[in-house]
Amino acid sequence: MSAFANYGTGVIMFGIDDDGNVVGVNNANEECLRIENLINDSLDPVPNYSITINEKTGVISLKVMEGQCKPYFCNSVAYRRANASTVPVDRAELSRLILEGENRTYEEMASATDDLTFKVLENKMKELLNIREMSKDVLKTLDLFSDAGGYNKAAELLADHNSCCGIDAVRFGQNISIILDRETFDHISILEQYDLMINMFRKYYQYEEVHGSVREKRELIPEEAFREAIANALVHRMWDVNANITVSMFDNRIEITSPGGLVTGISIEEYLEGGLLLPRNPIICYVFLRLNLIERFGTGIRRIGEAYSESLSKPVYNVMENMIRITLPIVSADNEFSEDEGKIMDLLNKYGNISMSSSKIAELTNMGKTKVVSILNKLVDNGYI
Does residue 320 have a pLDDT over 80? Predict the structure, then answer.
C-alpha cells in the first residue's frame, strides 16, 4: 500500500493463490475489518483506498490510490514497487517523494550559496531579449530568486560558477580503449556547457567542401538533432543525482546519456511520440525556452526525428529506470547500402519502434536467416540500427 500510494494506483487482491486460482477468503467481512485495522495501525499518513468483496468468489479487492501527501510510510519506512516485489526507497528517492508531497521540485530548493553571478545568462538575454542588465527583478521574473528564499537550485545551475555536475564528453577511436579527445564541462553554467558541447560537436561532425569558388558546409550528423538532444539532457535530467551527462563520440554515431529515467506520469510510448511532456525542471525549461534553445515543451524528440527525415539511419532511444540514452547515427542515403542492406533498413524504418526478430525479418525479406543476422550485425556495428 505504501508503494502504490507513493508511485501509482494499484490493487491488492485477497483470495487468489500463487498459481492464479480463485480460492476466496473465509469470513470476508471480518477479514476486511482486520485489513482496515492493519492499515490504520501501520500506515502514516493513511492513503485513499477502497475495499470491495466479490460475493460470488469471496475475493477481496483493496484498491490503493496514488496520494498527494507523499511520502506514505509503513511502520516508518517508505516503499516502492520494483518489478514484482516491494522494496524500501533509498535516501535520494525519499527526498524526491518529500518534495513531491510539498508540490515542489529539486530546482526550487534553496541554493547552497548566495555568492552567484550570471554573466553568461546576462549576455544571452541581452542578445536575444534586449535586457539591459541582469537585475534582481529579472531573476525574480525567471523564478530564480525570491525575497523570502533567495536564490534557488535552478539559479545555481545557471550561475557562472557552481558546485554542480556537468557533461563528460569523449571522442573515441576505433574502439572505446582509444580515447582521442576528452573534455569535462562542470561547475559552470549549464548554458556554457551547452555552448561548449555544440563547439565540440562542430569540430568532429562538420566540415566544408569546396566546389570552385563556393564553400559548402556538410554535416555527418544533423546539428539540429544534436542541439535538441543536448538541451533535453540538460533540461530534463535528474540534477540531484551526482553524475555527469555523458557524450560518447564515435566515427559513426554519438551517444548522449543523461541521469534519471522518465518523469512520473509519462510512458515510454508518449515519450517516443514526442507529443506530451511533463518537465522535471520547469524553471530551467522556461529559461531555455525564452532563450530559444528549445522550441516548446515536448517537441524535442519529434524535432530530432524530423532532422533525420531524409536519412535511412534513424536515432535510437534507450529508456531505462535510471537513465535515458539517445544515439544519433551519421546520416545515410540509399547508395550507402547494398541492395539487401537497403531492404532491411526499409523494413525496419517502416515498422519504427516495433521489436522484430531476425526470423521475422528473414521471412519478410525472403532472405536466409544466417544472411539476415550477418547483415544486422554489420548494421549494428556501423551504428545504423
Answer: yes
Closest listed residue to residue 120, CA positions, set 157, 155, 160, 167: 160
Using one digit for the tens of pLDDT, what is the confidence trace for 27-43?
Answer: 999 999 999 999 999 99
Q: Count of residues for the chain? A: 385
Rounded CA gap, 8 and 5, in Å? Answer: 6
- Please give the domain boundaries of the chain with CATH numbers for all domains: 2-104 (no CATH), 167-329 (3.30.565.60), 337-381 (1.10.10)
Type of residue numbered 192: E
Give the residue carrying C-alpha cell 524500501. 88
Distance CA(335)–CA(182), nearest Å, equals: 33
> Residue 119's Cα: distance from chain center in Å?
29
Grid cell 496514488 is found at 66
Q: Highest-confidence range of 280-289, 306-315, 335-344, by mean pLDDT?
A: 280-289
User: Does this model's pTM top 0.85?
Assistant: no
Q: How far is CA 66 from CA 8, 12, 63, 94, 268, in A?
A: 5, 14, 10, 16, 20
At residue 145, φ and ψ (nearest 5 deg) are -150, 145
- The count of other CB atoms within 10 Å of the CB of residue 271 is 20
> In degrees rounded to 5, what are phi and psi of residue 22?
-80, 120
Rg (CA), the chain: 26
